[in-house]
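re: ur msg from earlier - yeah i can do the acetyl coenzyme *A complex, just paste it... oh wait u already did. ok heres what im feeding in:
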Amino acid sequence: AASSPSRPEAVHEIPARVPVVERPEERSSPPASVRAGTMEHPGGVTGLTPGVTAWTAESIASLPPGERRTMAALVDEAGVLSARAQALPTAITSTDRLTRDQIVYLCCDETTNPVRGPTNVLGVLKTGDKNLFIHRGGASTPIEMEPRCVLDFYVHETAQRRGIGALLFAFFLRDENKHPARLAYDRPSEKFLAFLAKHHGLVKYQNQTNNFVVFDAYFAVKPRPASAAKEAKKLFEGRGVGLAAAARAKAAA
Ligand code: ACO
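and the outut:
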């Protein structure tokens, strides 16, 4: 229940630092780039600021080599931890396999310093396009569609149920001008389904053989018009954006 006394306060802006308890066996190991079981790195990355920022393969590739390595270590570790949390055999998210249509959103805590480090990532969300065949209302003939999809979503175990997932998700919806019903969700976990029911009232869907979830509401909500020019204008109006969004805005200008 939301009123549980042991539950930490929900966050609405830049998340406060979450202490991670170090296990004794980790203390003796040589200093790794990302501490085992965490998404913390001693280095900083230009543009990877406290709060949520958006990244693409292109914006990551344009970082100076050292920062690119830091970014790759953080994103790859986030992918591994997310896969572990979902009991998946392989990571869905890694910098090497990011395609041009995909965006990775990272949520960093308030101690993150893009100039001097450290960088402490609390959560990650990855979106992308997929070509899907969906049986609408249990119809035997599927319809082909290419929805924007939520492909991966993870908040570190030490930071769950504090509103960080909601912060990431809201940033993505604003950034890509999407309605939560007009999306497909790749194999959503029980926690994610509970999240969608709680925050967006999304509950009803038909099971699909491809394991994507398209809510019944998808077909009741009109898609939002989103031209590149409109997106660029919004970006220049000073919303909190990361390098990826800035790069996209520049390309569209
Ligand atoms: N059990 C049930 N529901 C949960 C749980 C849980 N352990 N954790 C979060 N939720 C849902 C609930 O609706 C919760 O509301 P409540 O606390 O009032 O019950 C709500 O999410 C909380 O919202 P936030 O605090 O904004 O969400 P959070 O920061 O915890 O992020 C997320 C949600 C990403 C699903 C997180 O719980 C997580 O990383 N889980 C493990 C990995 C996972 O399952 N990821 C989704 C995979 S599917 C995919 O990526 C397409």
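cool cool. Residues 2, 85-86, 150, 152-155, 160-166, 185-189, 191-192, 194-195, 198 surround acetyl coenzyme *A (CB under 6 Å). ping me if u need the other ligands too
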